[in-house]
Write a structure and sequence with these properties.
242 residues, alpha+beta, 2 domains, two-stranded parallel sheet, 7 helices, 7 strands
C-alpha cells in the first residue's frame, strides 16, 4: 500500500493561481481531503524537480535548511504567508458512502477498480503571493504526495460553512448496478398505484349507480302522496253542500 496521502495533477495555471485535482489515496480515510495553505505549500514543493532549482525550493532551503520542516505547524505559522496567499475548495467528486463495500472491491478487483471504484477527488485552487513560486510546474503534470494539513487551524482556512456548501453539491459514489436497481423500484410502485386506483374506481361506480336509483325513485313517492291529498280534498268539497 502506498504511503502517499494524495495523488495530484495540475489542471490549470493562470498568473498567480494554480488549480489542482487531488485524488485521495487509500493510506487514510477514503473521503479525506485537505485545504490549508500548509497543505498547498507541501504539495507544490513535492511537485518540483528533485534538484531543488526553482525559486520556491531555493527559498525554502534558505528558511529551513536542506530539508525544510514543512511537516511542522510552527514552520508554516511563521513562513507559509510568504508563499501562499489563499486556498479554495472548489469541488468534491465521488464521496464514498458505503466505505466497506468500496474498500473490499477496490482492493481485490483490480480489473474494474479504476472504472467502478474510483478514488474520491477534490479540486483545490491555490493562489500564491508571487507567480515565480509556481515555476517548475506544468499543466497535466502529476505526482504523489505525503502532504497534509500541517497547520490545521490556519486562520485563513476555508470556513465550515464554505466546506459544507461544497459537500452538498458533491457527487456520490454508488456500487455498480445500484442506480439500475433504484430506477426499477419506482416503476413497480406506479403499477401498484394504478391497481389501487382501479379498485377504488370500481368501488365508487356501484355507489354512484345506487345513488342515482335512489334519486329517481324519490320523486315517484312524492307524486303519489300529493295525488292522494288532492283526491281527499275533492271528496271533502263535495260533501259540504249537502
Amino acid at each position: 500500500m502506498s504511503s502517499d496521502t494524495f495523488y495530484i495533477q495540475v489542471q490549470a495555471i493562470k498568473g498567480d493561481t494554480v488549480e489542482l485535482m487531488c485524488r485521495t489515496s487509500t493510506a487514510g480515510g477514503v473521503n479525506d481531503y485537505a485545504v490549508t495553505r500548509s497543505f498547498a505549500l507541501m504539495v507544490l514543493e513535492d511537485g518540483m524537480p528533485y534538484a531543488k532549482t526553482t525559486p520556491l525550493q531555493k527559498r525554502l532551503v534558505e528558511l529551513g535548511g536542506s530539508t525544510p520542516p514543512v511537516w511542522e505547524s510552527s514552520f508554516h505559522r511563521e513562513h507559509v504567508g510568504e508563499f501562499i496567499a489563499s486556498t479554495e475548495l472548489v469541488e468534491r467528486i465521488g464521496i464514498v458512502g458505503d466505505e466497506r463495500t468500496w474498500r473490499e472491491r477496490f482492493e481485490h478487483d483490480d480489473a474494474t477498480a479504476e472504472r467502478d471504484y474510483p478514488l474520491h477527488r477534490f479540486v483545490l485552487r491555490v493562489r500564491v503571493t508571487d507567480p515565480k513560486w509556481l515555476t517548475g510546474l506544468k499543466v497535466g503534470q502529476g505526482w504523489g504526495t505525503t502532504a497534509f494539513d500541517a497547520w490545521w487551524d490556519d486562520p485563513t482556512r476555508p470556513s465550515k460553512a464554505a466546506l459544507a456548501a461544497v459537500e452538498r453539491k458533491a457527487s456520490r459514489w454508488s456500487p455498480p448496478g445500484a442506480k439500475k436497481a433504484a430506477a426499477k423500484k419506482p416503476a413497480a410502485k406506479k403499477s401498484a398505484a394504478k391497481k389501487v386506483t382501479r379498485k377504488t374506481a370500481a368501488k365508487k361506480a356501484p355507489a354512484k349507480k345506487a345513488a342515482k336509483k335512489a334519486t329517481r325513485a324519490a320523486p315517484k313517492k312524492t307524486t303519489t302522496r300529493a295525488a292522494a291529498k288532492k283526491t281527499t280534498a275533492k271528496k271533502a268539497a263535495k260533501k259540504k253542500p249537502a
